[in-house]
Design brief:
globular; single chain; mainly beta; binds iron/sulfur cluster; two-stranded antiparallel ribbon; Alpha-Beta Plaits
């Protein structure tokens, strides 16, 4: 099992999550972050850090976002590793990234 970044991250990218990951298994493209399922150790540290509640344990990904599980597996290995927080996309896209 692994943890999965789902739709709330898309066009928000707060990136708070990357600071706490003990194995640095977050990767990014221009829209969102992905967790590498072969590297994630299921520690749960990132879940409470995400301001928009985008991260779920694989078994708990909401039904409407199930496609994000294979998407993370597909995208993480070909995306750029991110280990430090940076400016979010809030205000630069049409997405409402209001913090929960
Ligand atoms: S903290 Fe949440 S919104 Fe920000 S990059 Fe991580 S998963 Fe995406
Ligand atoms: S569950 Fe732990 S190891 Fe997996 S992405 Fe989150 S912080 Fe990293």
């Amino acid at each position: 099992m692994a943890y999965v970044v789902a739709e709330p991250c898309y066009d928000c990218k707060y990136t708070d999550c990357v600071e706490v990951c003990p194995v640095d298994c977050f990767y990014e493209d221009e829209h969102m972050l992905y967790i590498h399922p072969g590297e994630c150790i299921d520690c749960n540290a990132c879940v409470p850090e995400c301001p928009v509640e985008a991260i779920f344990a694989e078994a708990e990904v909401p039904a409407q976002w199930k496609s994000y599980t294979p998407l993370n597996a597909e995208k993480a290995p070909v995306s750029t590793q991110i280990t430090h927080k940076k400016d979010s996309l809030v205000g630069t896209t049409s997405k409402d990234c209001t913090k929960k």
